[in-house]
Structure formats: C-alpha cells, structure tokens
Specification:
alpha+beta; 20% strand; 184 residues; Beta-Lactamase; two-stranded parallel ribbon; 2 domains
Length: 184
C-alpha cells in the first residue's frame, strides 16, 4: 500500500507542477500577444499628436475615409477635445462615431497616455492607445484596431497550453502505472 501512496503522491506533485508551468507559459505568451497588439497604434497616436502640436490641421492628420470598425481589421484614428467629445475620426460604427468611457481620457491626461482594450459593444474589441496632446482644440488622440485576429491567436495559445497539459498528465499516468507494475 505504501508504494501506491508514494506513486500517487509523486504523480500529483508532478501534475501540479505541470499545471503551474503550462499556466505560466500560457500567461506569458498571451500577454506578449496582447501587448504587441498595441504597436501600430502607439506609432499612429504619437505621430498624430506631434503633428497636431506642430500646427497641422485635424482634417490633415486624420486619414480620409471611414473604417467600418465592426468589419474591418484596419487601424483607425480619432481626435477628441478635453471633454472627450469627438472632433474628427476615421472610424464608423454602424455608420456613426463612438467614444470610449471618459475615464480613459482622465487616466491618459493624468499619466501621459493610456493603453486599453476597448469594447464599444458586445463582440467588438479594440486595442486602443490614447495619447494626450497640447494642441487646441484637440486634447487626445486615440488610435485603435480590431482585436479579432489577436483574440484568435490567444485562443489558439490557450488550446495548445491545454493540450500540452493533457499530454503531460497522460505521460504522468503512464509512468505511474509503469512504476506500480514494476513494484508488484
């Protein structure tokens, strides 16, 4: 009976350790994927803010045309005033414009910028970067893009981590069974 207890104890310890390792790998990869989703928007928002501060007109900074954000993967740019009111944007949500919660702007003002996952409605998630600007009447530049592909990569990573964990459990079970058979 003691060999069964010892094999079970060792197997559970290995299973727990495997779970922790798979979870840490998943979290690391998922966070890397998510933070990398901001890269194009950081450049877009900072460049637009600097252009406005140099005196470029808002309509020259914001790209012409509208991005149908409920369908497109294209990044979009929006300029807001100090109250969080949209001045001009290249986005169009179901034909109209949209804005994140006012707290996003308050945080950006207090901390020199903000990077958020913005969900204006169910099923639509955007990696958004908000940069304050000293230009007037503009106060904030928001650059964002759909997270549809990023979410698919994160889901794939989750499935791979889960598969690796199941495979590890199977190997642990096989070694435990072999160990018990060898001792009996």
């Amino acid at each position: 009976m003691s060999s069964l207890f010892e094999t079970t104890r060792r197997s559970l310890l290995l299973a727990a350790l495997s779970t922790v390792v798979c979870l840490l790998v998943y979290i690391t990869v998922q966070q890397s994927i998510r933070t990398g989703a901001n890269d194009p928007q950081i450049q877009m928002a900072e460049d637009a803010a600097r252009a406005l501060e140099r005196g470029d007109a808002i309509d020259k900074v914001v790209p012409a045309g509208k991005v149908e954000i409920e369908r497109s993967l294209a990044p979009f740019l929006m300029i807001y005033d100090a109250a969080g009111k949209l001045l001009l944007g290249s986005d169009a949500l179901r034909g109209g414009a949209t804005a994140p919660p006012i707290g996003v702007f308050e945080y950006a003002r207090a901390h020199g910028g903000n990077r958020v996952t913005w969900q204006p409605e169910r099923g639509l998630r955007f990696a958004a970067v908000i940069v304050p600007t000293t230009a007037k009447p503009a106060a904030f530049v928001l650059a964002a893009r759909s997270m549809r592909e990023i979410q698919q990569r994160a889901d794939y990573t989750q499935n791979v981590a889960a598969g690796a964990l199941v495979a590890t459990f199977c190997v642990i079970l096989l070694f435990a069974a072999a160990d018990l058979l060898a001792k009996n």
